[in-house]
Specification:
The complex is a heterodimer of chains A (about 200) and B (about 450). Chain A folds into two domains: about 1-85, Rna Polymerase Sigma Factor, Chain: A (Orthogonal Bundle); about 110-200, Orthogonal Bundle (Arc Repressor Mutant, subunit A), CATH 1.10.10. Chain A has about 200 residues and is an all-alpha fold. Chain A contains eight helices and no strands. The longest helix of chain A has about 35 residues, at about 160-195. Helix content of chain B is about 60%, strand content about 0%. In chain B, helix 3 crosses helix 4 (about 35-55), helix 21 packs across helix 22 and helix 23 (about 405-420) packs antiparallel against helix 24 (about 425-440). The longest helix of chain B is centred in the last third of the chain and has 28 residues, at about 375-400. Classes of the chains: A mainly alpha (about 200), B mainly alpha (about 450). At the A-B interface, helix 2, helix 3, helix 5, helix 6 and helix 8 of A face helix 2, helix 4 and helix 5 of B.
Amino acid sequence: MAAYQKGDLAAFGELFERHEKRLWNFLRRFVRDKATAEDLLQEVFLRVVKSAVQWQPSAKVSTWLFTIARNLCTDQARRAEFRQAESLDQAKASEEGSGLRRLDRVAANSGDAEKEAMGHEIASLVDRAVGELPVEQREVFLMREVMDMSFAEIAAQVGVSEPTVKSRMRYALQRLRSSLGELRQTTRTGAASAEGMP
Amino acid sequence: MKCTEVSSLLVDFLYEEMPADQRREFLAHVEGCSSCSAEVKAMSSTLGHARAALRGPLAEEPPPGVRARVLEAARSAETATAAKLRPARVPDPEGFFARLWKTPWLVPALGAAGVATAVFLVKVIKNPQVLPEQKPAVIEALTQPVAAPQALKQAQPRPEADQESVAAPATPAQGLASKPSARSERDSQVESKRAAAAGKPHFAPPDRESLASSRRHVYDDPLAGVSRETRPRAPVDEAAARKGGGKAVPPGDALADAKAKRAPAPAIHANKDETALDDLLRSVPGTRKAPIAEGAGSSGRWAEPPPPRAAGAPAATAPAAAKLAPIEKAEAIADLEDRAGSRVAEEPPPSAAPAKVQAPVRAAPASPAAQSEGPADKKKASEKKETISFGERVRKAEKLFAEKKWVEAAAAFRTLLAQAPSNPAAKTWRERLAAAESAQKLGLPARASKAVSSDPLDGL
């Protein structure tokens, strides 16, 4: 970042490479809409470009980037409450019950097709369950699981105490558990009905 | 450990942020409690599934378009920033002298200075009166302006310098112009003698003194020997007089008075002592020009420019001023006293006195013809004498009072009070009048004369 401040454009490219994947996954899981996540990722780095002069070397670049990303996501989540746009990335209304996405319908290269299909199902369930978490729990869960931030860092970033962060994390896990339990139950029911079929 | 505590510490256990002893205690409770054990297992499984999903199928690569757009934006921002910062980073190609050269007033100022210097040099160096042996000194003086007067003094010893009260020359050129050369005078005399012998008119080149006097003439007052009251006046601006509280003052005189007020008062004005007055009168050579006009360098007061002449009136010349010499002493006394006292006082005598004072001023003759002895001139002269005698009367009254001639002193003070009741010294006059009258009645020596200051001009 210091090199980019001095005008080194290649340093900015390196900075982008280092942080783009984690930021992308955070945004992607947070907003669930791919196009919106793409816009937000671009916006994060554009803000970095604009505010590069103001950056102080004492601040951690990753913290700064995630702060920008989190602020953008929070604003986006507030806007989404009033504007529930349907995304191509989301499951179609007709396929809402199955939870399948277009991405999930892409054939996998793995040989273990059943295991792969199960993994995708769990992933889609997790994705949906994470997306349905309240914003406070979602951001804590994603910061911890996607961005690998400690609870202390999350607490500092969010502006709450560490026990509060842990409490939010516990609630988030309970919600995920219930979502995955539904999946387990659905899977068992589906398997039983398949066995009972002639 | 209780089940509620296990529930609250579940996250710390899953993320391994629990101290070892607490972890042991936690595990001991979970092993003994089936519900807590199921809860921990379920939560651990959920977290495992979620983590696997997030780091497996859900871990996506960012779209390549974003990278290209972001890098493009960064590049354009960098270009814009560089363009914005470029003027500040680039050193100013115009240095101090380049900017100075562009200053609009510099070229005219330098041109004017150059022309002035050239004219000055041409005048000094090409001056025919400058002797060949003096030129190096002049050039040296010009090249070293600070040491110029000393160099000139060394180059031109001047024995007659103490005879003239001319101040030290302001410039080397003036100094040269005002110092005649003995050799040139000698040459001129020889030439004039030869011309006289040959019966031809001799046109000797003007000597430096005459040149200097002719230069000074521009600034000197041609009426310097003439009393201020008898100088020709410009038409009085009546409207301005009405505005100015009734005192009609011609523009030229107003300017002179303003200059006199602004200029530092010479010693002659501040000195109230009678002996000082006499000394000053003694120091006046033939006319009043010396203490006022020529004493510019020594007394600190510069010669005043001539007042504007009345329309049609010919300029007064030096002979005309010389004709006024017989009344010099009386005029000088009146003038000095006017300056010291009654004239300095803002309020002139209200009744007939102002008219008497102002009338001769307005009707003062301005030409030699006006100096002829006509009836009008006699009348004006008598009025002038009356004007002059006011100061004299003050002095006379003070003198009579000091000599304890009570009757005469009282009469004199009465007259003064009648003429100028609003004079600042009127209070003193009244006190002295009362003292004189009481002493006259009692037939005793006046004690008030001691109480009151013995300085006759003190009340003024």
